[in-house]
Predict the structure.
Amino acid sequence: MSIHNVGKTLLIATAISVSLSGCAGMSDQETTVAQGAGVGALLGAGIGYAIGRNTPSTLIGAVTGGLIGASIGGTVAERKAQYANEEDFLIAEIELNEEFIGEAETENRQLVAEIERLDRESQRLAQEYQAGKASRDVLARQKASLEEQLAKAKQINSLVDKRLADANEVYHETRQKRGAQDQYAQQLESSVAKLKETRQQSSQNVTNLQQMYDRMSI
């Protein structure tokens, strides 16, 4: 990928970041999340380029960077300090959980579809290679594609783990202070359950891609 193309991709991510952070009518929490998503896109684009050195890798990083934006907001204590009262903080955390879950589930679904496609393609190429109809270079490119998707899957899984840990911390603290029947405690409990399901899928994606990558001997 040329320096010009890298700059163009990062410029687009920067423009998204600026436009999001300047949207009128946003609450402080919405602005913080939007700015974080923009910064995350920039970080993700850099990570993607470092992994794959090409436009698809950079764009994958930028997409996953949106998840980073929802996860790099410091510790629970630091986020709590931004709010005047506990209820505002809890509402913001619940909203952040839901937004993150939505993004992570979308990324996971896309990865599942990509894994199925790569699996079919890898099996076909392996058969063609054994029959002398595919070159070693073709297999090497396929393995590189698997490595790229594996890196993305691991990144998503790591981010889900972090969000789940934060959500668990807020939930247990809220339940202890406000009781199990409190509306916020119950909503946070629901978020934790959804995040556990999301983590299960993201972990499975990593496992499936790792197995495919390991089988792709060249």
